[in-house]
Amino acid sequence: MTKDTLRVAIAGVTGRMGKNLVLSVRESGYALVGGTSRAESPIADVRIASDLSELIADVDVVIDFTHVSTVARHAEIVSEARVAWVLGTTGLSAIDQAAVVVASERAPVVQAANFSPGVTLVERLARQMGAALPAETYDAEIVEMHHRQKVDAPSGTALSIGAAVAAGRGVTLDAVREPAREGHCGARSTGGIGFAALRGGQIVGEHTALFTSAREQIGLTHRAFDRRVFSDGAVMAAAWAAKQAAGLYSMEHVLGLI
């Protein structure tokens, strides 16, 4: 497949991430067929549709950074059309995730909370550190900071990093996740994975995984300076996904790490 033949649709094309995706797709030389949006504000030379079904017959891949309320609908559409789906929407319920898994049985799906190559490597290293550093002696904490407009906490990326640490330790994040601490919350549990979420200014995204023992601390940090790192990574994933068989993939697959 050449750049000239890769046809891309962007779900949520008029949003903050959508506008960056338009730039990334065009700079990569791929064909932007159009995008979905509930907003009336147009983007130059972009076909706008109210529903993904209006575009799906003309595309090879859909890049989707929208809202959890659209996931089940989009999963049904890409599954029926067998079109590749790059999904960056976070905060999915168990039912939403089940719909993604079903879609991946008929279409290639790349799902990630963060499409930065650097974050993908941080998650991989966090898994290795979780395995190497005993939970009994190394307390794991994930600290994240984002712009003041972000509405969810902790971030999907923070949860992914925490899940990677938990996987390295042979447990699930749900089993060891500690809620945000406030007031008289008691002592820290052994083996727990804590989260702290900070908000302010226009910070694109900062994530740090801390492993702290009584004698040392190791920190693993990623800082994003420009949102284009996410949209560029998503377009990289789109080009990769369009060549794959049906299945559920991650950015580690895209980068050739697994």
Automatic annotation (TrEMBL):
Catalytic activity from the UniProt record: (S)-2,3,4,5-tetrahydrodipicolinate + NADP(+) + H2O = (2S,4S)-4-hydroxy-2,3,4,5-tetrahydrodipicolinate + NADPH + H(+); (S)-2,3,4,5-tetrahydrodipicolinate + NAD(+) + H2O = (2S,4S)-4-hydroxy-2,3,4,5-tetrahydrodipicolinate + NADH + H(+)
Positions of the Dihydrodipicolinate reductase C-terminal domain: 118-255
MF terms (GO), sorted A to Z: 4-hydroxy-tetrahydrodipicolinate reductase
Gene3D superfamilies, alphabetized: Dihydrodipicolinate Reductase, domain 2, NAD(P)-binding Rossmann-like Domain
Keywords carried by this UniProt record: Amino-acid biosynthesis, Cytoplasm, Diaminopimelate biosynthesis, Lysine biosynthesis, NAD, NADP, Oxidoreductase
Pathway linked to the protein: Amino-acid biosynthesis; L-lysine biosynthesis via DAP pathway; (S)-tetrahydrodipicolinate from L-aspartate: step 4/4
Residues bound to (S)-2,3,4,5-tetrahydrodipicolinate: H147, G156, T157
Residue span, Dihydrodipicolinate reductase N-terminal domain: 7-115
Residues reported in the UniProt entry to bind NADP(+): R38
Residues annotated for NAD(+) binding in this entry: G12, V13, T14, G15, R16, M17, G88, T89, T90, A112, A113, N114, F115
Alphabetical list of CDD domains matching this protein: DHDPR_N
Keyword Glycoprotein recorded: no
Catalytic residues (positions): H146, K150
Role of this protein: Catalyzes the conversion of 4-hydroxy-tetrahydrodipicolinate (HTPA) to tetrahydrodipicolinate.
Family affiliation: Belongs to the DapB family.
Subunit structure: Homotetramer.
Protein name (Swiss-Prot/TrEMBL): 4-hydroxy-tetrahydrodipicolinate reductase
Native source organism of the sequence: Acetobacter sacchari
Organism placement in taxonomy: Bacteria, Pseudomonadati, Pseudomonadota, Alphaproteobacteria, Acetobacterales
Name of the encoding gene: dapB
